[in-house]
Amino acid sequence: MLVVHKMATTSSLFFSSSSSSLFLSKPTSLFLRLPLKRFVSVSSQLRHGHAAPSASSTAASALATESTQTPTLDGAEHTEKTVEETEKIVLPTNKSSEKLLRIRHSCAHVMAMAVQKLYPDAKVTIGPWIENGFYYDFDMEPLTDRDLKRIKKEMDRIIGRNLPLIREEVSRDEAERRITTIKEPYKMEILESIKEDLITIYHIGDEWWDLCAGPHVETTGKINKKAVELESVAGAYWRGDEKRPMLQRIYGTAWENEEQLKAYLHFKEEAKRRDHRRLGQDLDLFSIQDEAGGGLVFWHPKGSIVRHTVEDFWKKTHLEHGYDLLYTPHVAKAELWKISGHLDFYRENMYDQMSIEDELYQLRPMNCPYHILVYQRKRQSYRDFPIKVAELGTVYRYELSGSLHGLFRVRGFTQDDAHIFCLEDQIKDEIRGVLDLTEEILLKFGFDRYEVNLSTRPEKSVGGDDIWEKATSALRDALDDKGWSYQIDEGGGAFYGPKIDLKIEDALGRKWQCSTIQEKKKRPIMIHRAVLGSLERFFGVLIEHYAGDFPLWLSPIQARILPVTDTQLEYCNEVTRKLKNNGIRAEVCHSERLPKLIRNAEKQKIPLMAVVGAKEVDSQTVTVRSRFGGELGTMNIDDFISRIKSATDNRTSL
Description:
By secondary structure, the protein is an alpha+beta fold. Helix content is 32%, strand content 28%.
């Protein structure tokens, strides 16, 4: 995230004695797109961030796959999926196809009608279309998978009857009378929240109706029942309030034809295979312990190694680009958050205050005020600018337990925040520098295609027109200078300044929020940016992007040494020591037959296996197989070490 802040206006949120100011900056996102490879994919744009795991949709594609088998050591077989870019199916979205949106909305109504036919005591609430389908919430007894099959059969019957969907407008009094007659308390609550005098109702034939503004298909027969599937059922509090009743939410997916449904299901299966929560457990990378509390991440040794590698690369790169590194406290006096504006604008995401020696303190939700305090510790000369500081700072934000989701939405996470203090005539060059740095870092992780948005002044904002115009022009000029194409997101900026959002796309075509660049101007100017965003979320993205199959430089274990028998164990330990002494992450596994050792290494996605038998001991060599490059043959230890170090330094595979 890059934000440019103006450092001294009367509308500032954070004031100092020198009348400079810090503006509240919400970490936004940086996203990239990758080339598709070694996976079955349907591109679906899922936007994830700590603010909300919501999704934005664009055209998606399903790719046919073939399975190829590569021989492994001692006859073991390693199967990997590759992509043939044939039979590409472009999936429409709610935004690109009004027909699809109508189908999905009507499916929600058809499902509700089916549920109430099968379960007359069920009370309906709301049923919107969503990114890949629809859902409806019911107040009823818990449902099972068997119930979903019954409901789908009833839906098919309703669709087959080709019943008309009829729009009707009635007065508020008439709507209230009808709701009272059918005894639907949730509909009554919904009616009370509608401000219009005329109430819109949609009927399915003359058998069922709901409060609804539309749109819908003309008849149920316009829905292809073979392109509809009920996916799951989950609990959901009414109005999202944990003090209100727990409802049964049925999720479904709907498409225009069977081919689109099949493509979506392919994507769904691949997404399931790559789910970072499952892989995190299978590969022993991280966990979230119930005893400690939800949304609090425990990094296991292997996950910690990956994080350490990412952090080392991040720090080295920032130092090379002229940043100074900071470490700042996890708590501060509550007064600081009041001055910074967080208590006014962000209170619902902050934890309760704690009393320490008659003063109130609070866990930090953001790093910005700390960096301002460091900047303000002394008077700065214009010759000192630009001043660039960066920190991997852990922040804490309150999230409802029901909204927590693996590493993607947590309560404590580490943000890669940085702030650049510069003069007005330095803005363009500094923003361009941030764009270059962002590209450099993300390319190293395999993300090389970008969607860029320039977000402009929202309806509610601070600062004058001239300030906003200059800030927006600075961002636009930097993008033009970089040569990146971008779209204008009118009114999508923060209340304190315009911003650049870069979106990265993973191997399944999903878009993830990582980096943003935002601007707010004053003398001097402060640019606020984050490249990776949350390390926890970025790690989750990496796991799913690589399906846990990390490249050599990132892999927690780079090489596993495998003795044919325990007779070679002493030599294997010697080889492992040499590898570790050269900074290579290596380990020995033994006490099993070699084929099982190889299979275990494959399951754990170890990039390199070095097999040692009697011949290798005699010749002081190892026989190497690369997970990505196949059989590499026999080589001496020094050559093995040299090739690993070269591949690691160049971010390539062996």
